[in-house]
């Protein structure tokens, strides 16, 4: 089985603009533009994760380039550690080879995570875009438009993607269940939405994980979320051990308040993560046990968990060179 068949997020990634869930204004705007494809401008897609930015970019490539779309679309990730030089080299090579005998209006470069680039790199990118203007169009993708330098913004048509609404997500998940022949309870799909707040990629991944229990219900979703919680708690612990107390605390509050992870579960997952992440785990587990006890006897959870993270940050800092094993 190919990876596209294995992962539902890929298997159900829309191939045509008409199949994109919601983002109606964007789809309408793009259709108007594509009515005369030769006039397609550079575009900048902004918005949160998992709402269709990459999907729409690839739909455009299919629409404009037809059967040649794979050969004449270059997908790059700007946060690649090789940076702007890698982008320059790849774009140069890509735009250089000609498409003799094939009638496509231009090639398409899709550059993801453009807002991860420094402003110097973005200035260089702007040059690259101008130099290849006769051969290529760019679709830049970012989370935060404010992180994109003005000269790039002003050279692109900007599309702002929104988080998907509850009904959109729940209906899409229900559809996938029907196509996969998986039984589901409506309440469970709702729960997935609650946890993923409009990130359809995350929602589909949880749905698939839950479905491996044979049915998508309260219990199987909880179990799938447990795996997801664990990864998120791991992130909080990593931030704390790096000494980044403020971010760690905010993420912790997001997990407990927004996503409803119980404080004791937080501590349980934190223990597993500390074993994995820190060479000082004996010392840290003692700290953890102390806070676990305080929660049991009824101390204020937010304050206790914040104090715990502060303690981890302190220990982490005092051993910053030895605290991380393999990252
Ligand atoms: N608007 C959408 N319509 C249909 N599927 C979507 C949509 N947004 C996300 N998805 C699903 O989530 C996956 C990831 O979407 P993607 O377009 O890569 O998100 P991003 O906005 O992070 O680029 C897709 O493969 C698809 O299965
Ligand atoms: Mg993407």
CATH class of the largest domain: Alpha Beta
**Could you say how many structural domains there are in total?**
3
* Oligomeric state as shown: single chain
What's the tally of helices?
15
The CATH homologous superfamily of the largest domain is called P-loop containing nucleotide triphosphate hydrolases
Q: So, CATH architecture of the largest domain?
A: 3-Layer(aba) Sandwich
Shape field: globular
Which fold does the CATH topology of the largest domain refer to? Rossmann fold
**Rg from C-alpha positions?**
23 Å
| Strand order, largest beta sheet | 2-3-4-1-5
The termini sit apart by 32 Å
Order of helices and strands: HHHEHEHEHEHEHEHHEHHHHH
Helix content: 55-70%
On the 0 to 100 scale, the average pLDDT is 90
Structural class, from secondary structure content? alpha/beta
Any low-confidence stretches, pLDDT <50, length ≥5? 321-327
Largest sheet geometry: 5 strands, parallel
Based on the model shown, name its key terms.
Zinc Finger, Delta Prime, domain 3, alpha/beta, 57% helix, disordered C terminus, 3 domains, single chain, binds adenosine-5'-diphosphate, 5-stranded parallel sheet, 327 residues, binds magnesium ion, Rossmann fold
């Amino acid at each position: 089985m190919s990876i596209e068949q294995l992962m539902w997020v890929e298997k159900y990634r829309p191939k045509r603009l008409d199949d994109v869930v919601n983002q109606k204004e964007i789809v309408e705007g793009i259709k108007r533009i594509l009515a005369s494809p030769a006039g397609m401008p550079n575009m900048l897609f902004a918005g949160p994760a998992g709402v269709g930015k990459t999907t729409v970019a690839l739909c455009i490539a299919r629409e404009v380039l037809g059967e040649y779309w794979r050969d004449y679309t270059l997908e790059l990730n700007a946060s690649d550690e090789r940076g702007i030089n890698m982008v320059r080299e790849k774009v140069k090579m890509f735009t250089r080879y000609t498409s003799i005998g094939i009638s496509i209006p231009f090639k398409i470069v899709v550059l993801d995570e453009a807002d991860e680039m420094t402003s110097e790199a973005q200035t260089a990118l702007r040059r690259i875009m101008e130099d290849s203007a006769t051969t290529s169009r760019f679709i830049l993708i970012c989370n935060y438009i404010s992180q994109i330098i003005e000269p790039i913004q002003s050279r692109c048509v900007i599309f702002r993607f929104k988080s998907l609404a509850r009904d959109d997500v729940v209906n899409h998940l229900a559809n996938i269940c029907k196509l996969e022949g998986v039984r589901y309870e409506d309440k469970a799909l709702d729960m997935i939405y609650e946890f993923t707040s409009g990130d359809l990629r995350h929602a589909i991944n949880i749905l698939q994980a839950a479905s491996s229990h044979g049915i998508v219900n309260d219990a199987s979703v909880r179990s799938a979320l447990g795996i997801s919680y664990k990864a998120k708690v791991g992130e909080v612990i990593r931030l704390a051990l790096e000494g980044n107390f403020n971010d760690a605390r905010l993420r912790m509050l997001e997990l407990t308040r927004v996503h409803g992870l119980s404080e004791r579960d937080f501590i349980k997952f934190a223990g597993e993560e500390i074993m994995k992440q820190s060479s000082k785990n004996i010392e840290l587990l003692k700290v953890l046990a102390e806070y676990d006890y305080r929660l049991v006897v009824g101390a204020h959870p937010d304050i206790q968990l914040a104090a715990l993270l502060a303690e981890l940050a302190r220990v982490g800092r005092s051993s910053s060179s030895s605290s991380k094993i393999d990252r």
